[in-house]
Amino acid sequence: MVKVCSPPEVETKRRYLVTGAAGFIGFHAAHELKKRGDLVVGLDNFNNYYPVSLKRARAAVLAEMDVPVVEADLNDLEALQELFSECAFTHVLHLAAQAGVRYAARNPGAYIQSNVAGSVTLMEVMRVQKPMPILVYASSSSVYGLSKRFPFSEDDRADLPASLYAATKRSLELLAHSYYNIYKMSVTGLRFFTVYGPWGRPDMSVMSFSRNIVDGKPIRVFQGPNSTELARDFTFIGDIVAGILGSLDSASPSADSTTPPNNRVFNLGNTQVHTVTEMVNALQEMLGIKANVRYQPLGATGDVLRTNANITAAHEAFGYTPKTNLHEGLKQFVDWYFKYYGPDGKKRAADENGYIPD
Ligand code: NAD
C-alpha cells in the first residue's frame, strides 16, 4: 500500500480514520475534520451501489485538501492492519456501510458483509492498537422499526426491525456494545435521521426525485395503508456533521484507567417532520419544474411510515442543536445540484446516465 501518513503528522495531531469517506456523510465529515487541522485518512471500497463517478468526485475534492482515500474493503484485514500501524489513529469514524432500505430485500449478503462482518473486522483491528482508538459509528433511525411512539428516544425498543438494513445497524450497535464491555473500547453510535444536502446520495428521495423532475420523468411517492403519507425527520448534512464533531470531541478515551470509556447511542435528527409530498412541493418550486407525482402503495419495501427524533440526549451531551430547516437545506442542495450537473441539471457522467434508483 502507498504511504499515507508521514512521521511528523503522526507525532503531532489527532489522527482520524474515516471509513466510507467517499460516501455522502463521510465526505462531509472528513472535509470538516481536515479544516480543523486534524490528520484525516479515508477508506472506501468505492462500490457501485450508486454511480461511482460521484464517489470519485468526492474523493478528488478530499485529495485536494490532503485527505487520501485509501481504496480498500472493511473486510481486508491486512490492509486495515497496515493502515493502523502506519497512521496510529486516535479516532475512528466508522460510516462505511451498505446503506438503503429497499435494496436490502434483494441483496441481503451485501449488508451482512459490510455492516456486520466488515464492522467486526474493523473493531478487531482497533482493539489491539495501543492506545486503543475511540470509535464513533453510524447507526440509523431505522432501528426503531415500526414503533409508533413519537418522537423516538434512545431508550425506546429497537428490537423490531422493519428491514434487513435496520437489523444490521442494530447488530452493529450490539457488537459495539460487546467491544466496550470486553475490551473497554469507547463506543458512540449515532442514529442518523434521513440526511440530505449537497453531494447527497442518488438513491435517496431528495436526489432521485430531483433527477426525475429535471428529466421530466414521473416520481414514485409511496403511501401507507389508507393513503397515509410517508413522513420523515429530514436532517441537513451540516447539522449531522456538527453532531458528529460534537460526539467525537466529547468522547472519553478507550481503556483509560481514570476516565470510564463511553458506551453511548444518540439520535441525530432535526425534530421537524415533513411529509414526502411537502418535500416534493418545495423541491419542484426551487427547481422551477412541475413534478409528475405517481402515488403508489408502500408494499413490502421495509420502509417505515414516519420518523421523528428526540434529540435531548445529544443536546445535553454535546450541545447538538440543528440549525437548518427543510426549506433552507433544500435550497443549498438545489444550488449544488445545478453547479454539479450543469445549468439544466442533466450533465451526468457515463455511469449516472440511465441510473435507476431503487
Ligand atoms: P454512502 O453509501 O454514501 O456512504 C457509504 C460509503 O461506504 C460508500 O462510499 C461505500 O462505497 C462505502 N462502503 C460500503 N461498504 C464498504 C466496505 N465493505 N468497505 C469499505 N467501504 C465500504 O452512505 P451515507 O449516506 O454517507 O451513509 C453513511 C453512514 O450513515 C452509513 O453507515 C449509513 O448506513 C448511515 N446512515 C445514513 C443515513 C442517511 O440518511 N444518509 C441515515 C441513517 C444512517
From TrEMBL:
Protein name, as recorded: NAD-dependent epimerase/dehydratase domain-containing protein
Record flagged with keyword NAD: yes
Organism, as annotated: Edaphochlamys debaryana
Alphabetized InterPro entries for the sequence: Epimerase_deHydtase, NAD(P)-bd_dom_sf
Keyword tags: NAD
Pfam families associated with the record: Epimerase
Limits of the NAD-dependent epimerase/dehydratase domain: 17-250
SUPFAM superfamilies tied to this protein: NAD(P)-binding Rossmann-fold domains
Keyword Magnesium: no
Domain of life assignment: Eukaryota
Family per record: Belongs to the NAD(P)-dependent epimerase/dehydratase family.
Annotated Gene3D superfamilies: NAD(P)-binding Rossmann-like Domain, UDP-galactose 4-epimerase, domain 1
